Amino acid sequence: SLGYTKDPSIHGVFVGDLTKAQALGGRDIIQMRPSKEASAALRRKRQKKGDVSIVDGEGAYKGPWARYQDDQIYEDEAALGAEELATDEEYIEEAIVPARSTVATKLVSDYQDDLTNTETTEFHGTAQYDYQGRTYMHVPQDLDIDLRSEPGTQKNYIPKKHIHTWKSHVKAINALRFFPDSGHLLLSASADTKVKLWDVYHNRELLRTYSGHTKSVTDTTFSPTGTRFLTGSYDRHLKLWDTETGACISRFQTSTKAVPHVVRFHPSTDTHEFLAGTSDKKIVQFDTRSGEMTQEYDHHLQAVNTITFVDDNRRFITTSDDKSLRAWEYNIPVPIKYIAEPYMYSLVRAAAHPNGKSVAFQSGDNQIVVYASTDRFRQNRKKSFRGHNNAGYAIDVGISPDGQFVMSGDSGGWVCFWDWKTCKMWHKMMAHEGAVVCAQWHPRESSKVVTAGLDGGIKYWD
After folding, report:
1. How far apart are CA 138 and CA 234, in angstroms?
2. pTM for this one?
3. Which tens digit of pLDDT belongs to each residue from 395-441?
4. Edge-to-edge, what's the strand order for the sheet holding 293-297?
5. Which tens digit of pLDDT belongs to each residue from 164-219?
6. Which residues pair with 420 in a beta bridge?
7. pLDDT surpasses 80 at 88
8. What is the average pLDDT value for the chain, to the nearest integer?
């Protein structure tokens, strides 16, 4: 505003700042706009915008911040005379010589590879061998439960009390895995780049730490015999470890160097292959003996979240952030079933039911949905487990060994239990301060579960 305007009721009369109106001849903003010739002359006085590839020095990019020549002359004189500048002007420091820097390429800003490939391990237990020369791999026989019996033969119950806490990780836990069949060891993968092995019985102590990743560990899985395990990490590497010695046996990486989100060994004991679902929409299949990629399943449209083997391990089901479910024949890279409905949300975690006929999936809309794992892979609309909050987190879903109960963590720190047949919530208990993202049933015990979350602690319940 100029501070004055014309009086609409009387021609040629102004209201407001009459002195300014007289000085400017009563012109308004439109009339005071410079002519095309004057504007062109003003633009010629402006500095060049510069080259976008030059950061500092001569010819550096100025863009919309390019000054006018008159302003530059005034600033130089003011700086030389050590005069005080106006508040909206910038003092030019003569002593600082601008450094000439090159343009940052994609290689500079890209994730750096794990060039060291150095893996270390540390044993923390009281004794590496017992009186018979056996390591912690030996399934204990001096317990009140037979850890070598057939799984799922005993009736399961809901756990009620907290009996132990394992604490060593300094960041959130991303995955928990019991030792196959016996469950006498517990493996934990954390965002602190470490993988740790714990004793479930006897002293319940930390046995071994496996170090080798440079970023958060996304997932881990035991081989069918438990002698080895796999880890995937945000450093874009997959590593195969020896459970007993802690040695890194081999390293794997996808051709596109994608982040592995989920890793699963083929459950058959006579195979040496595993699958990894990655951030670049693919499921890749590796052979641990040759280290080569043997198959690639490339049909998803976004990052892969889960891999679940079904139908006597001849097929597997995958889910993705593209809100779809796909079923595959093992070794054939064309899906045999594709399910994507408008009402579906991303299915972020999965657990196969012991009867071999169903798979429970953690859905992003605060419910657990169930799909058949037989030929048609249809959703069982009668089975939906609700009452917990999981939105925004990848929270584990677990099913008891006898198939009677369904368990899930919660973003508020709760652990929830439902009845498989009726879908009614049986019990809900506060377990952790942050979100509970890991929850696993013990494969042999009648009522023991293990939980972990963003607080870095692992809790054992009975």
Report:
1. 32
2. 0.74
3. 999 999 999 999 999 999 999 999 999 999 999 999 998 899 999 99
4. 260-265, 273-278, 283-287, 293-297
5. 999 999 999 999 999 998 999 999 999 999 999 999 998 999 999 999 999 999 99
6. none
7. no
8. 86
Question: How many residues make up the chain in this entry?
Answer: 462
Q: Which two tokens stand for residue 277?
A: 């679902």
